[in-house]
Amino acid sequence: MNLDDSQRKRVAEWIGQGLKLSEIQNRLNTELGLSLTYIEVRLLVDDLKLTPKDIERVKPAQSPLTASGAPSTGTPPAAGKPPSGAPKGAENSAAPGKVSLSVDTLARSGAVVSGKVTFSDGNKADRYLDQAGRLGLVSEKTGYRPPAADVQDFQAALETELSKIGL
Questions:
Q1: For 5-37, b where at least 16 C-beta lie within 10 A, e where not — what string?
Q2: Distance separating alpha carbons of residues 124 and 102, to the nearest angstrom
Q3: Which residue has the higher pLDDT, 71 or 137?
Q4: What are 130-149's pLDDT values in tens digits?
Q5: Alpha-carbon span 64 to 62, nearest angstrom
Q6: Residue 123's closest CA among 151, 104, 81?
Q7: How far apart are CA 80 and CA 63, in angstroms?
Q8: What single DSSP character describes residue 102?
Q9: pTM, whole model, 2 decimals?
Q10: Could you tell me if 7 and 47 are in contact, meaning their C-beta atoms sit under 8 angstroms apart?
Q11: Under a CB-based contact definition with an 8 Å cutoff, are residues 24 and 17 in contact?
């Protein structure tokens, strides 16, 4: 994406203000008329050599996933581990009130990366990111829409997981 100098300065200002990539994506659309996917915004910020500010978050008592993709040590083995016959990258059960996601070791057909997500209300969905950078959710319940708070938690968890695998 080629931006002129004034547009680059606006993006740099937004990063300086501590805006999240999704907020920058919305502002690019509303204020500059540029319709970009989330991954395109992420690449744009990287191309401009900008680093989004990390917001200090309250660290949860336990994390749904450790860096290796396995359940955290704070989760009881029966609740957090997939059955011994399950493939690596299988879904971890979510703690009540939290969003949990996993990354498949083999992405589904047509996807760059895929996995599973469990929202705070217990609803589960398959998720994927295609080659065009579009995020897709395929819920077990037809027409299901996750709560708004879960969407933000999901985006943050997804960004963390994608950075672990280098995307």
A1: eebeebbeebbeeebbbbebbebbeeeeebebe
A2: 11
A3: 137
A4: 888 888 888 888 888 888 88
A5: 7
A6: 151
A7: 11
A8: E
A9: 0.41
A10: no
A11: no
